[in-house]
From TrEMBL, chains A, B:
GO terms assigned for molecular function: thiamine-phosphate kinase activity
Stated name of the protein: Thiamine-monophosphate kinase
Keywords, sorted A to Z: ATP-binding, Kinase, Magnesium, Metal-binding, Nucleotide-binding, Thiamine biosynthesis, Transferase
Phylogenetic lineage: Bacteria, Bacillati, Actinomycetota, Actinomycetes, Propionibacteriales
Note in the entry: Reaction mechanism of ThiL seems to utilize a direct, inline transfer of the gamma-phosphate of ATP to TMP rather than a phosphorylated enzyme intermediate.
Record-annotated PurM-like C-terminal domain positions: 163-302
Origin species: Nocardioides abyssi
Metabolic or biological pathway, per its Swiss-Prot or TrEMBL entry: Cofactor biosynthesis; thiamine diphosphate biosynthesis; thiamine diphosphate from thiamine phosphate: step 1/1
Amino acid sequence: MAAPDPFPAGATLADVGEFGLIGELTRIFEQGEHVLVGPGDDAAVLRVRTGHVVVSTDLMVEGRHFRREWASGEDVGHRAAAQNLSDINAMGGRATSLTVGLAAPADLEAQWALDFARGFADECALVGASVVGGDLTRADQVVVAVTVLGACTVSPVLRSGARPGDVLALHGRQGWAAGGLAVLGRGFRSPRVLVEAYRRPAPPYDAGLVAAEAGATSMIDVSDGLLAEAAHLASASGVAIDVRRGAFEVPEPLHAVGAALGADPLSFVLGGGDDHALLATFEPSGVPDGWAVVGEVTEPGDAGAGAVTVDGAPYDGPTGWTHF
Amino acid sequence: MAAPDPFPAGATLADVGEFGLIGELTRIFEQGEHVLVGPGDDAAVLRVRTGHVVVSTDLMVEGRHFRREWASGEDVGHRAAAQNLSDINAMGGRATSLTVGLAAPADLEAQWALDFARGFADECALVGASVVGGDLTRADQVVVAVTVLGACTVSPVLRSGARPGDVLALHGRQGWAAGGLAVLGRGFRSPRVLVEAYRRPAPPYDAGLVAAEAGATSMIDVSDGLLAEAAHLASASGVAIDVRRGAFEVPEPLHAVGAALGADPLSFVLGGGDDHALLATFEPSGVPDGWAVVGEVTEPGDAGAGAVTVDGAPYDGPTGWTHF
């Protein structure tokens, strides 16, 4: 049974204080056996048996990456963990340890921070990763800073290995979170399955290693938009990529959203992020089960290396998200 | 010779764009030979020869941890790196790799971000550490999120090993940054040596390993205030600590500030942070050169474990900084 909530209803961060909150947060995070020194010292100490670590970091800012009225603290915790765990997945590795920094206004409810931590811990538990350290400070808006450490059991899959003749393949649901975000942005709460997909992405945490073992030549996770991520692969690999519209099965709820909002439902699939599906390239004979071939890698054409086309032509819709 | 600045004078983050800035920032960060995959992929990959990593994370928020009118971008970069490198120093280890997340308003000058990165890189170079990854996003105020990885060549020194009969010892200048912050807060820019100490701390990066090799029983770096950090050691170790006023040589510029502001100059030493001096406990016969004995570890008295006294009595001044 979960412990009762430790703070009075409505208590703010200012009410409970930094050290009171840190004590409760630390209690939420369980430590794996690889954690030699956990939270509470100047640094954590982690056993590393593989001879290397894989490391990535991400920021999430309130009002930009999430809104507290659109998602609970627990949801935001799940999303923050998921997008970082997914970065290790996209290398073909597995996350083992995370640190999390939380900057927040003094009038934030302490309960929100606890809910956030629980969602974060629950998402990490899906891959067996431990939250080994963190920081807590005051800011005008909520900012979540996560760093994830992991390891690969085979060679890491980089963005730069795609070769002409490879196929582009996708694993995991794609466009769902973008559809959910679109309806939330217009004040709706349904289709519920899409809203939930936005609030709690379900990255295919086992697919990265499978792809690496199958010889994926390049890989990335779709956080900012499928075509934008394809362009990152193409650019890093010095190739061009053509995506085929007809390769995508657009899920029924996206058709409903497209009809309601007057948008092409495929635009959520091609331009949407936040689901943390995996996009990878393989030799045509080497595509593992569960991956859908959605395009081809070609020699760079007139548009140069990094160009991404859709059915052989430039795409005129949004390809992804930019931060400035 | 340094490369010329790549952006037109006054260009903002919005003007140069996320990817334009990331390209220039990445150019600033040189990679050590342990970096197998550097910035630009979903994650970095680092060689680890020691069988473990030491990891810590910190947030710095504009208006709370720094002000852009009090310190240049380069200064803030130095400070952000120093406070993280110091956390590894306080374990008796050495930093090898850092990630840095920068959240900033769209109208921030791109030059500030470049200056920040240069200061950050220069500070990391003092210990031979590489900046291996990062994230850049938009926020209402500047927030810097740093995670540092490192390694120990002897057993990490925790906060929890102090024993009654040990002495408390300090290495590095202490109170200087607090004096500098106090004069800046009142609109002055001198004594310059204190203002510079606040803008660019000079942590004793070699002292942590020396202390570990000498058998330090506990250690912490002074980021939030000497008495507050002593209380962390006492609390984690289940002991009490008495600090001796007469053990500190108060530097001349702090006397000047004390006189000008009507404050006890020793209060900057006892309550000030930000210099990232090291505070450690040793057996009385085991204090290494360069460390000043400033107190004693005792059995917990009536005030219980974690109590810190000054000359045997409770201290009534500020002991350190709290975040909420």
